Amino acid sequence: MPGLKYFGYSVFRPYQKDVIQRIIEKRDCLVVMATGSGKSLCYQLPPLVTGKTALVVSPLISLMQDQVMSLKQRGINAEFLGSAQTDSSVQTKAETGYFQLLFMTPEKACIIPISFWSKLLKAGVCLFAVDEAHCISEWGHDFRLEYKQLDKLRTFLLGVPFVALTATATEKVRIDIINSLKLKNPYVTIASFDRKNLFYGVKVINRGQSFVDELVQEILKSVAGAGSIIVYCMTIKDVEEISKALKQLGVKAGTYHGQMGSKAREEAHRLFIRDEIRVMVATMAFGMGIDKPDVRHVIHYGCPKTLESYYQESGRCGRDGIASVCWLYYARSNFAKGDFYCGESQTENQRTAIMESLLAAQRYCLLTTCRRKFLLNHFGETYSAETCGNCDNCMVSNRERDMSRESYLLMTSIQACGGYWGLNMPIDVLRGSRVGTPPQ
After folding, report:
1. Rounded to an integer, what is the distance from CA 138 to the centroid of its chain?
2. This model's pTM is above 0.85
3. Which residue stretches of 15-134 are H helix?
4. CATH (domain of 150)
């Protein structure tokens, strides 16, 4: 049995066997399964069973490199093709059916000549997988224009089942994936988004050095336990500030962001995966496809721009099923960045999607009810229980209390400030803060 021989599994996880059987039967599939639930096996096992090549489109070179390295260590012939790759021997070998799994970027897939597809199809292709398929949709949180062109390959890959896989897709995104890839009567699998072993918590912060110090102390407590920690920051400046504060206290922390060179990023990634460093401070550029089972804490320093990206990033926690913790620290200023985020968008639909998801992330932060229930409902999953018992709101008793006095004081302070200074100024006044006061 290939699953046991190559991966060490004697049984399938939920949904894997059904999806693999449909792929072998040459049926198109849409697979929506939470981070850490075993989506990759759905396209890794069929080539080992059929003896044909599996083609996999993936959005990041680093992600492909990780998977190829892991597969090679298991004795599986795997390689990747990138648009900047100069080594022609990989493509030549691929045309003969040498590789069991061949990864490529969407950009590369769209420029490969027809002759390549013809030779490869003749050698034998068992599936064409589109990983991180939410990138296809304008309503998704990582829209990539090149993904929209992948349906053209159906012309060259006749009889090959197309398989779309993602961990984060609302109903609107799922429909867009099916239509964009022209999936024919697809077998649709939507697993539960509920990660029962994860604790979700949110805290509001006043950004500044005092909070950085507080956050670093929280990280130090976490370092004392087992497992690894990922700290996600919204800006490169925050990454460097948190990393510097940790290193000054003797914590060996890695950094990862888009302005680092590729070799520096690869080295940081390698050290983290091999447990040579236990804390990684990074932007959202880090982590897509990270297969590290023992991440015990994922901390967000700032609210992500979409609830989907938050779910995906927090989902890198506790992939081994052991209890793990996800904390999100946000400032009210995080919610004023909608126009900035929309400036990155390419279409009106995408701008609308960004604003809708930013508002959803804001509602998540401000919740006083079950956070798990809110997350699951966002992805269209019904959660019947009113409390999950494993988020900050559900674990704090007597949350409802008379706040009339506090409300009166806050409104009075807002009035005293003239209503011109946002919410932070009245709160600082009530707290007796001396921020901005000239020295005596």
Report:
1. 17
2. no
3. 16-24, 41-50, 61-73, 89-95, 106-111, 114-123
4. 3.40.50.300
